[in-house]
Amino acid sequence: MKRKILYFSLTGAFLLLSFQIVNTKLHLLQSPGAVVDDYIEPDYGLGSGHIDSLIPFPEVKKGERTPFDLWKYGGIGKSSFMDPKLPMEWEEWLKFHKNQKPKLMMDIDSYMNSRYNFSNEVIEGEFMSGGRKPIMKGPVSRLSKGVRSYEELSKLSTMEIKEKDLFPFKPLAHPLASTAHMVFPDSWNAVHPEHNRIDVGHDYPDEYLPEFPPPMFLTTHKELGDVTNGREVTLSNYYEIFNGLLTPEQMEGLKELVRPTPTTWFNQTTHRVTEEASAGVSCFSCHVNGHTNGAFELAPDSRPHLARLRVGTPSMRGNYNLMQLASKRSVRSMDHFAEIEEYFDGDPGMMQHIGPRGHQKSVANRMGDFNAMLNFPPAPKLDAMSNLIPEKATEQELFGEKLFRGKAKCASCHYGPAFVDDYMHDLKIERFYKGRPEGPIKTFPLRGIKDSPPYLHDDRLPTLDDTVEFFNLVLELKLTKKEKKALTAYMLCL
């Protein structure tokens, strides 16, 4: 009897093993998968935003000029991966850009002036939180010929605006998307000439960008106000400024935020856009003092490169109150964001050629810990529940608050202590122009918003007044001139 039991046990084990081997072979072979023979691609209601209605992306080499109206283009690229080699030898690369840049910058200026009237007019008596830089008055986005006012434009249907090509708020592209990467403002380059690019410069006048250097406010030391006393925090002075204010762990996190590291185009190799080799950039090269200097890049979340959305540098202030970071992806923690910060344009393979940042999880956690201490600027007209204090606010500001929570629908997405809902929204802007849909974009907080021009994820709105006009049109709010001015006045209080 025992022999029979042993025989059947061995037989069962053999059959089970044979079954597993067969299954393993099938798994390793991998069938090709199902294919719909008569598949017809629907347009999913996209109309002119569907791929069939878009222009195929041009094939360009690194450094070659790209169209300013990239929203008209669509399609896939040849590869998701970057090549660490330049399309030509280094000396030729330098000569190529020295020849191309002057004409490119003239064309960029001409294009920006065709879209905006940079009049340098300021809102009287209004300054950014540092108290030095005035707030620019708008709207400065130009209307199409034949349209006399934004009020007249808002009376037209979305279809009429689209068909007549009257939408003044089309996306803003990176002016050299074939190379892309960080483009720093003139004010930054004047202090940090090592980041002055040989190929392209910033496309915004400095008057319409954040103050530099901006103040820094900490949740742990509100009594100090600007803890930097008007200084830019760097690797050279961070210890002097913060010793005695931070814990050793926080100090380590800050050190990593200000420590330059090599990146895709700012480094010691010839794969760079600066004439001289450099140590690279740090987090605070764009997020100066935990805020922003108005530098822009391309979001790393898509390919081909020409399809990547331009993204302005968002402020890091108040990130402790946000549950969603990045613009197109839902990154859910500050330490995770510190790990994936896009120094290599979303291509880790480039690290092998240029040099990895090499952050361990514990270091990324400390970077996130310091980030979590960066406070919003003071808002003396707001009470403990973020309501305007009637005794401190003007009649216009109080009217703006009422509109913000009512007719203007702002509070549908902007509420709470940070004035943000922590969701991504698809505004379906392609209703107003013929081009590639932008899709869902993260809602950004409005707390301290006066310090962070230009606005929207791609910088297409130079002033708060432009932002009000944008949403009045896109959400079809039918606001009056008086109501729009009141909304701007209210947001200046936040």
In short:
This protein is mainly alpha-helical and 494 residues long. It has helices at 2-29, 90-115, 150-154, 158-163, 186-191, 238-242, 248-258, 283-286, 334-340, 351-354, 361-371, 395-405, 464-474, 481-491; strands spanning 55-56, 73-74, 122-127, 134-136, 296-298, 310-312, 424-425, 441-442. It contains 14 helices and 8 strands.
Chart the SSEs and their pairings.
Layout: H1 2-29, E1 55-56, E2 73-74, H2 90-115, E3 122-127, E4 134-136, H3 150-154, H4 158-163, H5 186-191, H6 238-242, H7 248-258, H8 283-286, E5 296-298, E6 310-312, H9 334-340, H10 351-354, H11 361-371, H12 395-405, E7 424-425, E8 441-442, H13 464-474, H14 481-491
Parallel strand pairs: 1-2
Antiparallel strand pairs: 3-4, 5-6, 7-8
Helix pairs in contact: 7-11, 9-11, 12-14, 13-14
SS elements, strand count: 8
Distance N to C terminus: 86 Å
How much of the sequence lies in strands comes to under 5%
Q: Note the run of SSEs as H and E.
A: HEEHEEHHHHHHEEHHHHEEHH
Oligomer: single chain
Q: Helicity, in percent?
A: 25-40%
DSSP summary: helix tally: 14
What is the C-alpha radius of gyration, as a whole number of Å? Answer: 26 Å
Give the overall average pLDDT.
90
Give the overall shape.
globular
The structure class reads: mainly alpha
Taking strands numbered 1, 2, ... along the chain, how are they ordered across the largest sheet?
A: 1-2
Largest sheet: 2 strands, parallel
Q: Low-confidence runs (pLDDT<50, min 5 residues)?
A: 2-8
